[in-house]
Design a protein that fits this description.
Blueprint: H1 7-41, H2 45-48, E1 53-58, E2 64-67, H3 73-90, E3 100-103, E4 115-125, E5 132-143, E6 169-173, E7 176-177, H4 179-188, H5 192-219, H6 226-244, E8 250-258, E9 265-274, E10 277-281, H7 297-312, H8 320-323, E11 326-329, H9 347-351, H10 353-362, E12 380-387, E13 397-401, H11 430-436, E14 439-446, E15 462-468, E16 472-479, E17 500-503, E18 512-517, E19 523-526, H12 541-550
Parallel strand pairs: 10-11
Antiparallel strand pairs: 1-2, 1-5, 3-4, 3-6, 4-5, 6-7, 8-9, 9-10, 12-13, 12-16, 14-15, 15-19, 16-18, 17-19
Helix pairs in contact: 1-5, 1-6, 3-7, 4-5, 7-10
Length: about 550
């Protein structure tokens, strides 16, 4: 005789799952509104236009429950590791209602000084108790236009030269703003209004999240986030383990050579896949560089994790459970494991290659899911505009642009043109860039023939021609790569086109370092294309003809 089925118990369990799913969807809307508040209040174009930010909600232990879709892996995944540092450094006994915390520590934040992370605790009254209880945290990160020092670029030899370093500390103490800290930041940066405005925007975005979360808890009569966090972590862990189980256990290796600064850099990885998770070890990677292209290990970890999640389970949310399944290690002294006080200002250039490096390793196990290599690092353009005539001083300005090359072709689709992968930031518009400083963008167009050939074509780069406005010249910091080492094709596909940077007369510029564009001259940037995928002879003839008609190939 079969055992009786407890249908009431099954119904209760289904109801709990449905309730938690509704709560999860609502929590996502909370963090999306948090991120939107940051976009709307930000002063910097990198936040308003490019979305170079992150926003998320955390439990009382500093474990990320949910993140906003708006944002970059380099910010989100490092911010997920940052909140426990806030809790430890502030001290649980010093966390009070009305507090707001801040840092731009590269090793406790996002890897360089230009990203500021702000963390806000959330308290809620407890039934029958006069003392409010801590129920979680909101955190957000944004890239600011300037942090003083040498300015945004790779030329510093120590982190001390790269700008002001804000240790984890209180920006607001029980509702009282730390004016001394604000003043110290103000006098140490070149664009004080923008930077201070962005700091207040970060705090405001967290406050928006805090208020919306409390509204949500009130509406559904919840005391805290504990049950919801447990549900999210448990379901995510099951899904992550299922995704990893689709990869055969073993060790998978890959190497990649990129331009570096002054001499090529070798990036190496060995990924070990077990039933428990995936581990990336960067033994074999080149040693640290004397200049600021070094990468803190936490930033490399962020882009390894991102690459594995998009390959194995792109539908999975980013949270503590999914991120903790992926671990990293590296020997002391390698360029993907920079330690204080090594310079790290443009850690994104090599850090962005970590995703393609690790995807190239795992492609041995799942070749039908991994694209060819892409342009990788975004081509940031940071310029300090100054008067060309010292006798006619004009207002100086700091100008920041994000520009992207092509992504690698996918197993069944062409690569994406002028799209930032893996960073995910948007390319800034001409109008937004020209509005913030004395710069003229004369040309911005797709770069023909830059995508690698294959059954699927690599994504195309772009050509940008720009120069200072009348009366100005500018110093700019080059932080470009794939000028000497193009994106490699996969499965028989061709390499993408190499990048180029040169003056309007043809004089080449170096891919890294501070250089000058004088008045009435123009800088031309030809961004690299992505690699192709598969045998070019197998490309669909209709796709070949469409490429010709669209001007993608000549």
């Amino acid at each position: 005789m079969s055992e009786p089925v407890d249908r009431s118990s099954q119904a209760d369990a289904s109801a709990r799952v449905l309730h938690n799913q509704v709560m999860w969807n609502r929590l996502i809307s909370v963090v999306e509104e948090q991120a939107l508040a940051l976009v709307r209040t930000a002063f910097s174009t990198s936040v308003r236009e490019a979305g170079d930010l992150s926003a998320g909600v955390f439990d009382t232990a500093g474990r990320m429950i949910a993140q906003a879709v708006t944002g970059t892996p380099g910010h989100v995944n490092t911010m997920a590791a940052a909140v426990p540092h806030f809790i430890n450094d502030i001290g649980p006994e010093r966390i009070f209602p009305g507090d707001v915390y801040i840092t731009n520590d590269p090793w406790k934040g996002t890897g360089h000084l230009h990203d500021i992370t702000v963390c806000t605790p959330v308290f809620r009254p407890v039934s029958g108790d006069d003392v409010d209880a801590l129920i979680g945290f909101f955190a957000s990160t944004a890239h600011v236009v300037d942090v003083g020092g040498r300015g945004y670029g790779p030329d510093a030899k120590e982190v001390y030269e790269e700008g002001i370093n804000i240790p984890i500390m209180k920006l607001v103490d029980r509702g009282s703003l730390n004016h001394d800290l604000v003043n110290i930041v103000r006098v140490n940066v070149r664009e004080s209004d923008q930077v201070i405005g962005d700091i207040h925007g970060l705090a405001a975005s967290n406050e928006t999240g805090r208020r919306r979360l409390l509204d949500m808890l009130d509406e559904f009569a919840l005391d805290d986030l504990q049950d919801l966090a447990s549900f999210v972590f448990a379901r995510t862990d099951i899904a992550t383990q299922r995704a990893i189980a689709s990869v055969k256990a073993g060790v998978y290796r890959n190497e990649m050579v990129v331009d570096g600064y002054g001499e090529p850099v070798t990036l190496a990885v060995a990924i070990t896949v077990t039933a428990a998770g995936m581990h990336a070890d960067f033994t074999g990677t080149s040693p640290v560089c004397p200049l600021g292209i070094n990468v803190p290990l936490g930033y490399a970890h962020a882009y390894f994790t991102y690459g594995m999640l998009v390959a194995l389970a792109p539908e999975l949310p980013n949270n503590f459970a999914s991120l903790s399944t992926f671990t990293v290690s590296a020997p002391d002294g390698v360029i993907l494991n920079a330690t204080h006080p090594e310079p790290v200002s443009v850690r994104h250039v090599l850090g962005h290659f970590v995703t393609d490096l690790c995807l190239g390793a795992i492609a041995q196990a799942i070749p039908d899911r991994v694209p060819a290599e892409g342009a990788g690092a975004i081509w940031n353009f940071q310029a300090s505009a100054r008067s060309a005539d010292p006798s006619d001083p004009l207002k100086p300005a700091e100008i920041l642009m994000f520009n992207s090359g092509g992504t690698g072709a996918r197993p069944r689709l062409d690569g994406l043109t002028s799209t930032a992968f893996p960073s995910g930031v948007r390319t800034m518009s001409v109008e937004a860039t020209e509005q913030v400083g004395p710069i003229i963008i004369w040309r911005k167009e797709i770069r023909p023939d830059s995508g690698g050939i294959g059954a699927q074509r690599g994504g195309l780069g772009q050509v940008i021609e720009l120069g200072p406005a009348a009366g100005y010249q500018f110093d700019f910091s080059a932080m470009f790569d794939r000028i000497d080492h193009p994106a490699r094709g996969r499965a028989g596909g061709g390499d993408g086109a190499q990048g180029k940077a040169y003056l309007d007369g043809g004089t080449p510029f170096a891919g890294k370092g501070r250089q000058v564009v004088l008045a009435n001259r123009r800088l031309v940037l030809e961004l690299p294309g992505g690699g192709g995928y598969g045998d070019p002879a197998k490309r669909d003839p209709d796709a070949v003809e469409n490429d010709r008609l669209q001007g993608y190939v000549t």
